[in-house]
Design brief:
The chain is of the alpha/beta class and 319 residues long. The protein contains 11 helices and 12 strands. The chain has helices at residues 50-57, 80-89, 107-117, 124-137, 154-166, 184-201, 212-218, 236-241, 246-253, 260-265, 296-300, and strands at residues 5-18, 22-35, 39-43, 65-70, 73-74, 90-93, 172-176, 204-208, 221-226, 229-235, 306-307, 313-314. The chain has an 8-stranded mixed sheet, with helices on both faces. A 4-stranded antiparallel sheet has the order 2-1-4-5, covered by helices on one side. Strand 7 (172-176), helix 6 (184-201) and strand 8 (204-208) form a beta-alpha-beta unit. Helix 3 (107-117) packs across helix 4 (124-137) and helix 3 packs parallel to helix 5.
Length: 319
């Protein structure tokens, strides 16, 4: 683990037991790194396990196997006292700003709650000063402090959620579809704010989303997930310009292009068939049932991520 690496995940697994003894492999043996002050984008279609990754990193879910190294320390098996300290340094911004804020609490109390839990002030005056500073950081006015969450727009509510996440001065934040519930114009404002906060505070993000344009804009590196596994991971521009895995190629071919001429020239790669049930996964590579390059080897053995140069890793036998 290098000095610059903040978070290193090795062989992380999270399985759920569902009905009649069946096992749902939500996260199945994934590994990645996030450097200090940088952003890893995590993309993939709904149900691929992105949110489970974020929640397992923060110990909302207990990992079944693997290591989570935060600043060199394995946090995948820590006691309650250490877990509380962990939540101070690692926070989450949730997808839905409408349901993740308590309607009975004022903005001041919502943002101040982490300060109360971790006892991060010595007087009521210091508490209020910290809350007002956090509100200013995310573009909220001081007079908003006494109002309730339902009085705000979606974008403003998400800003409240971000201020709450920043209250403990974390070094790492999981952004779980943090802009997907917002209008496109508001999305841009919130994404720009995430970038400004990263510049000011040096915080690292795991940015979970399904919109590749958004992820490409904000991320230093991007990991692509399919049915619980990472199939490709590379620097943001490298992945955008040179996608290697057939699934990544298909995702990128579906991204809308602003230039009509270029959009016409781009070949849309339509995947055949449906996503397999995560309860009845195909043998070998899970993507093979929809892949135009699938061979007999793909059915026999699941490929692991291999480096193709410049940190560009791909899990595919034929690419």
């Amino acid at each position: 683990m290098s000095e610059k690496t903040l978070l290193e995940v090795e062989g992380l697994k999270k399985y759920f037991q569902v009905g009649k003894g069946q096992t749902l492999k939500a996260v199945d043996d994934i590994s990645f790194q996030i450097k200090k002050g940088q952003t890893l984008g995590l993309v993939g279609e709904s149900g691929c396990g992105k949110t489970t990754v974020g929640r397992t990193l923060l110990r909302i879910y207990e990992p079944d196997a693997g290591k989570i190294l935060f600043d060199g320390k394995d946090i995948s098996r820590v006691n309650k006292k250490e877990a509380k300290e962990l939540t101070r340094r690692m926070q989450m911004v949730f997808q839905d700003p409408y349901s993740s804020l308590n309607p009975r609490m004022t903005v001041e109390d919502i943002i101040g709650e982490p300060l109360d839990v971790h006892k991060l002030y010595t007087s009521r005056g210091e508490r209020r000063d910290k809350i007002l500073h956090l509100m200013e950081l995310v573009g909220l006015n001081a007079e908003h402090a006494t109002r309730y969450a339902h009085e705000f727009s979606g974008g403003q509510r998400q800003r409240i959620g971000i201020a709450r996440a920043l209250a403990t001065n974390p070094r790492f934040i999981v952004c779980d579809e943090a802009v997907s519930a917002l209008d496109v114009s508001i999305q841009a404002q919130v994404i720009n704010m995430f970038e400004e906060l990263q510049e000011k505070l040096g915080v690292a993000y795991l940015f979970i989303a399904h919109d590749l344009l958004v992820v490409h804009h904000i991320s230093d590196r991007i990991a692509v997930m399919y049915l619980g596994r990472i199939v490709e991971i590379a620097d943001s521009n490298e992945l955008n310009d040179n996608p290697m895995h057939p699934y990544t190629q298909s995702l990128l071919s579906a991204v809308p292009y602003p230039d009509p001429k270029m959009a016409k020239e781009r070949q849309r790669i339509v995947l055949e068939g449906d996503v397999p049930s995560p309860l009845h996964m195909p043998s070998g590579c899970a993507f093979r049932t929809r892949c135009r390059y699938a061979t007999e080897k793909c059915a026999q053995e699941c490929p692991s991520l291999t480096d193709r140069g410049n940190g560009h890793q791909v899990a595919c036998w034929n690419k």
